[in-house]
């Protein structure tokens, strides 16, 4: 609406819906402008239906003005205009000061304007996806990713040597077009020529080497690599300490995304906000309003159909964190529900090293067999099921025997640590439910929210008796599980005693040395059963993601990946009936 600021100022002096006498001179003083400009303002506002302006003939007869909108209605229009121009935070701040009913109107309007849309920019049609994200401190450095949101974003911005296809359980070429090994211990990869990073420099085998060495120096992700040799700009060879036929699959992990190391070294803070990869999208805006991704025009593989993705930084009170960038609620009964169970689970780790409590297996068993996993929920009853494994297909709703719940425990209150990835994204609710169950057994406990990176620290291992956390598996479920079981960042492995660690290490070594996938899984399941039999880990819940699509949806590949996200690279639009007309 033109002259909206002037109209808002008028609402401070005139009552909405009430016809009042005034004068051009009076309005000029109110609006701090010339009388000539006032005449133009009231003419436009009257024509737009914002005010009613009536002039009367005759000496001494003053014009009469009626404001036809409330101030909140005008502010609502102003906030919508702010959204249209990308000033999201200004709009959210403005709306927060309005009446609750007006806030709800804005939130409904805002939700209706999300999703996929086609816009024209300089006569070029752009297909843009907009969606809200209520926790926008994304980690976009591949080596430092923590959450499924981080991993999802990294896969859009970076490429890896190979890509894992979960549907076929096969590796597919990406930066590398071929790889080989004669003995499972020495692996050679051959890179495509002409792969470019977002800033234009060609990606070579030296970049692969520096990426892997960084991971080796700062993490335990590639603990089995003994040496990395570059033969020329397109050939690189990895020599392992032990035979590992799963090694190529580890190079498809998000953490193994190839980076230009100089960008990290020279500008670490900038790299964290504007990461440079070779992937199908690049970050062009990352401020208080949005994270904007634009398609990489020089991408060496197939160009994605979506031109831009706008991730809008939205206040958390606008609703539950979006599990999906499309619709979270069905507008009507014609919409189809899409649901996918997330592989991975929330779990409780028993600190088997803690003296006086869970170092005693009998005490662990007493607690373990009385806990009810179905009551230890983090998100709520609507999107979780009971877990008995990290893998949802193996989980069945199991109710453990909870008879004789009271225990004779005379020690100090148990100390429980709840994993937190970032403020607001934690396992506090599940931990409180655990605390209630312990109280019913006659055991007091205390809860502390602990940062993910501190969960498995030496200080935490010496402090807490129980750890509540969770993991979401990647597309390659087996590699994700093996990494999780031996990770020193998670609490599973660090909380095991030496005998348990030895069992896990031997089984994983065997898994990596065999080539039959069914044998690998059989060995993995033995690890899970062993840890449960030792009462070292209690699986709690799996999450599932639910969204809705129109019955005749023209958009193809709007389906959830293992992170509960849509892979932007695969979405496209087919011809529908309206287009045919």
List keywords for this structure.
single chain; alpha+beta; eight-stranded mixed β-sheet; 24 strands
Describe this protein's structure.
By secondary structure, the protein is α+β, with helices and mostly antiparallel strands. It has 18 helices and 24 strands. The strands form 6 sheets. Strands 15, 16, 17, 18, 19, 20, 21 and 22 form an 8-stranded mixed beta sheet that branches. It has a 5-stranded mixed beta sheet with strand order 4-5-14-13-12, with no helix packed on it. A hairpin with a 2-residue loop joins β10 and β11 (235-240). The model is unreliable at 320-326 (pLDDT under 50).
Summarize the structure.
With 581 residues, the protein is an alpha+beta fold. Strand 6 (162-165) and strand 7 (170-173) form a beta hairpin.
Fold topology:
Blueprint: H1 4-11, E1 20-21, H2 24-31, H3 35-47, E2 51-54, E3 64-67, H4 71-84, H5 88-96, H6 100-112, E4 115-121, E5 124-133, H7 148-157, E6 162-165, E7 170-173, E8 176-180, E9 186-191, H8 205-218, E10 225-232, E11 235-240, H9 247-250, H10 261-266, H11 268-273, E12 281-286, E13 290-295, E14 308-313, E15 335-341, E16 344-350, H12 361-368, E17 384-386, E18 414-422, E19 425-426, H13 428-440, E20 445-451, H14 458-461, E21 466-472, H15 477-486, H16 498-513, H17 517-533, E22 537-550, E23 555-556, E24 572-573, H18 577-580
């Amino acid at each position: 609406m033109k002259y909206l600021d002037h109209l808002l100022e008028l609402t401070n002096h005139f009552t909405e819906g009430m016809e009042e006498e005034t004068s051009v001179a009076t309005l000029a003083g109110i609006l701090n402008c010339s009388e000539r400009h006032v005449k133009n303002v009231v003419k436009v506002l009257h024509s737009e239906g914002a005010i009613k302006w009536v002039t009367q003939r005759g000496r001494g007869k003053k014009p009469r003005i009626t404001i036809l909108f409330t101030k909140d209605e005008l502010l609502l229009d102003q906030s919508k205009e702010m959204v249209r121009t990308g000033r999201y935070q200004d709009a959210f701040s403005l709306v927060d000061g309005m009446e609750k009913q007006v806030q709800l109107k804005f939130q409904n309007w805002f939700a209706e304007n999300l999703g996929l849309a086609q816009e024209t920019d300089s006569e070029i049609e752009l297909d843009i996806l907009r969606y809200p994200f209520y926790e926008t401190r994304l980690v976009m450095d591949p080596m430092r990713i923590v959450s499924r949101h981080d991993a999802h974003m990294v896969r859009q911005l970076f490429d890896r040597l190979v890509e894992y296809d979960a549907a076929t359980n096969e590796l597919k070429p990406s930066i590398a077009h071929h790889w080989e090994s004669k003995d499972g211990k020495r692996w050679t990869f051959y890179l495509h020529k002409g792969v470019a990073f977002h800033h234009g420099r060609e990606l070579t085998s030296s970049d692969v080497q520096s990426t892997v060495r960084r991971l080796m120096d700062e993490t335990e992700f590639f603990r089995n690599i003994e040496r990395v040799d570059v033969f020329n700009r397109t050939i690189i060879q990895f020599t392992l300490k032990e035979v590992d036929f799963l090694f190529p699959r580890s190079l498809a992990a998000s953490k193994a995304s190839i980076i230009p190391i100089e960008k990290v070294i020279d500008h670490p803070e900038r790299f964290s906000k504007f990461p440079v990869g070779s992937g199908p999208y690049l970050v062009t805006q990352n401020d208080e309003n949005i994270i904007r991704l634009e398609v990489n025009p020089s991408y060496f593989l197939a160009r994605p159909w979506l031109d831009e993705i706008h991730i809008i930084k939205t206040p958390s009170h606008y609703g539950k964190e979006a599990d999906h960038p499309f619709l979270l609620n069905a507008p009507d009964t014609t919409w189809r529900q899409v649901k996918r169970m997330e592989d991975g689970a929330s779990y409780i780790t028993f600190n088997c090293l803690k003296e006086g409590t869970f170092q005693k297996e009998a005490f662990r068993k007493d607690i373990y067999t009385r806990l009810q996993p179905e009551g230890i929920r983090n998100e709520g009853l609507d999107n979780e099921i009971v877990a008995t494994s990290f893998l949802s297909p193996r989980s069945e709703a199991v109710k453990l025997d909870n008879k004789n719940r009271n225990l004779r425990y005379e020690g100090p209150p148990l100390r429980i640590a709840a994993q937190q990835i970032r403020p607001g994204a934690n396992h506090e609710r599940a931990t409180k439910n655990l605390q209630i169950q312990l109280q019913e057994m006659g055991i007091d406990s205390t809860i502390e929210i602990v940062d993910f990176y501190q969960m498995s620290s030496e200080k935490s291992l010496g402090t807490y008796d129980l750890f509540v956390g969770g993991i979401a598996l990647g597309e390659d479920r087996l590699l994700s599980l093996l990494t999780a079981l031996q990770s020193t960042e998670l609490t599973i492995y660090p909380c095991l005693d030496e005998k348990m660690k030895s069992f896990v290490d031997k089984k994983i070594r065997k898994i990596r040395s065999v080539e039959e996938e069914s044998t690998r899984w059989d060995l993995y399941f033995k690890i899970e059963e062993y840890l449960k039999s030792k009462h070292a880990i209690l699986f709690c819940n799996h999450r599932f993601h639910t969204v809705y699509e129109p019955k005749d949806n023209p958009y193809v590949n709007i389906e959830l990946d293992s992170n509960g996200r849509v892979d932007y690279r695969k979405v496209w639009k087919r011809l529908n009936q309206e287009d045919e007309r």
